[in-house]
Amino acid sequence: MNSLKSIRGRLIGSYLIISLLTVTIFSLILIFMLRQYYYVNTEMTLEREAMFAANSCNLYTGKDNLQKSAKTLLDSIRRTTSSQVQIIDSDGIVLADSIEGLGVGYKVNSSDVESSLKGKPSNSIGNILFTNDTAISVSHPIKVDDKVIGVVRLISTLSKVNWIMVMDGLVLLLVDIAILLVVLLLSYFLSTTIIKPVKEITIAAEEIAQGKLDVRVPKRYDDEVGKLAITLNYMAKELSNHQKLTNDFIASISHELRTPLTSIKGWAATLNSGGFTDMGEIKEGLGIIENETDRLALLVNELLDFSKLTSKSASLGMEAIDVGEFICEIRNQMNPRAQRQGIDLGLEIEYDMALIKADRNRLKQVMINILDNSLKYTQEGGRIKISCQSKEDEVLIGIEDSGIGIPEDDLPKVKEKFYKVSTSFSGNGLGLAICDEIISLHNGRLEISSEFGVGTRVEIYLPLSKEIQL
Predict the structure, then answer these.
(1) What sign does the dihedral 172-175-180-183 (CA atoms) show?
(2) Contact, 468 vs 318, CB < 8 A?
(3) What is the rounded CA–CA span in Å between residue 26 and residue 355?
(4) What is the homologous superfamily of the domain 2-162 according to CATH?
(5) Among 249, 171, 276, 296, which residue's Cα sits nearest to residue 429?
(6) Which end of the chain is more exposed for a tag (fewer CB within 10 A), N or C?
(7) Comparing 229-238, 267-276, 313-322, which segment has the lowest mean pLDDT?
(8) Which fold has domain 224-310?
């Protein structure tokens, strides 16, 4: 549960950090743009008013009477603007000021005044003399016959603009807080869409670990978590199948072991009772014990063999094999038994067959096992044909009989371990499973086709040129 909380915390934290950075950058950019807008707008207004005032002064002022007309000019200009107005002479001395009480006769050393005295309108932002408030000042030269005789200076405090910007900043702050709260809520609910499926998967995994293999996790979203749910369900299904196979394996082994062990124990107890005087009966009992012991030994050996093959721990002694010669050898070995059973064991081989690379003993084990089944399920007077032919980059070995065949329902399962077709012949159900594993180790494949009551055909495909994986 702590890990889930940690995931939720990391997700919410990530969303909040990204959102905080975003709204902070956006707010700073917006505040900067608002400041530029208010300052530039104020500056442009003052520049228009200063230019108008300077032009008025140019029309009504002579070369030498700026000082005399300063008060009159000031009264004329102040009616058209709400800003502070100053009339400054060519030496930078204030001749008149629209704010009473500040006095006149002092020199202004502002950069905008100095620039205007040189004939160039200018502006500056700084602290107002006497009040120390931040203000913007715009100066415009007063000219008579292209000679600068003074300056009209308009000053506007920025306190109102700054107050507006502070209020805008507070509004932005409230908006930012609201956005962050919305992001917090959304991130919480979004994290739930991840946490909930992960929690379901975690609980299901714990239950599967406890042996509840029927547990399944719903796929809520088509994403990585959804794929994880599908994978967990697939794993649970495979574990369930594996458990079923294990149970079937134990049941089959128990059944296969029970019969010979019962016979051995029964005859051993009978012989041990001492009630037999006929050596023939004693030998018969000992023979049964010996045969059942051989059956047990064969079953154990096949189990060990199958275990090695399925775990890929069995090694193959690869060598070049002449397929035609090998098939003839197998046919000659099995032909006496076929003759005793009255079965025709035929052979059909292409001329000049290619060499293959295989484990001769393992391949022989496969052929004898398949032929043993064919001979077992083919009636007297029937036929079995062994064939061999090349197929592009592989060799096809076929074994076809006219036996009783395999029922359609049993055919897909005959290569499964311990699966036995319902017949009167005994067997442990491992033979074809072992054959299939051996051929797979050779990078080949074993295919079985059959028609019940007609016959069976087994096809073994082995590679000619592909590398054999040992």
Answers:
(1) negative
(2) yes
(3) 77
(4) PAS domain (3.30.450.20)
(5) 249
(6) N
(7) 267-276
(8) Helix Hairpins (1.10.287)
Question: Nearest 5°: CA angle at 398, between 392 and 401?
Answer: 155
Task: With CA atoms as reference, report the closest residue to 66 among 28, 25, 26, 94.
Answer: 94
From residue 126, give the alpha-carbon distance in Å to each of 112, 132, 135, 137, 417. Answer: 11, 9, 6, 8, 96
Euclidean distance between CA atoms 269 and 265, whole angstroms: 6
The yes or no reply on domain 318-463 and CATH 3.30.565.10 is yes
Q: Where are the domains of the chain?
A: 2-162, 224-310, 318-463
* Tens-digit pLDDT profile for residues 341-381: 999 999 998 877 778 888 888 898 889 889 988 998 899 99
349 DSSP β-pair partners: 388
Rounded CA-CA distance 93/105 in Å is: 6
Residue 467 above 60 pLDDT? no
- pLDDT at position 383 over 90: yes
Pairing of strands 383-391, 344-349: parallel
Contacts of 226 (CB under 8 A, 6+ apart): 197, 219, 220
Return the amino acid letter for 251.
A
